[in-house]
Design goal:
Radius of gyration: 14 Å
Largest sheet: 8 strands, mixed
Bound molecules: zinc ion
Shape: globular
């Protein structure tokens, strides 16, 4: 399934993750599924309870509040995102373990190189990973 993200949201995401570097930044993706495509309409920044450079734990209270905000806007949670400060944008074994929703999009933002790299994945119940088409455009 293709995933659509606005350039301004991407730029804000990179800015936020760089501000937390070298810790892992994380959060949620809210939006809509429209004609078989995921449209990310908002990115939520959630405190990483692990405060770590290698892994993340989304604060559950902040998650509930974010999902309520999404519902109030008529959106749904499409997935979550986190940064890889020093690793490439490929799901780690722990990322796969923590991925329980086969329909969700899992964004990984790598800050390891000169330019940030953002990829979206789906993780099947057997932990097979599939990369999604991520389209970053000015508007949709
Ligand atoms: Zn990861």
């Amino acid at each position: 399934m293709a995933v659509w993200l606005k350039t301004a949201d991407y730029v804000a995401l990179v800015h936020h993750a760089r501000g937390i570097f070298p810790k892992v930044a994380c959060g949620l993706l809210g939006g809509k599924i429209d004609q078989g495509e995921k449209k990310v309409l908002g990115i939520w920044y959630i405190n990483n309870k692990d405060a770590s450079g290698a892994h993340f734990a989304i604060d559950i209270k902040e998650q509930f509040a974010a999902v309520k905000e999404m519902r109030d806007r008529g959106w749904q949670q499409l997935g979550n995102w986190h940064s890889h400060p020093l690793q490439s944008a490929i799901p780690s074994d722990k990322d796969k373990e923590q991925a329980f929703d086969a329909n969700a999009s899992y964004f990984i933002l790598s800050l390891a190189g000169g330019e940030p790299v953002l990829c979206s994945y789906q993780v099947a119940p057997d932990k097979t990973v599939t990369k999604e088409d991520l389209c970053i455009v000015p508007d949709f």
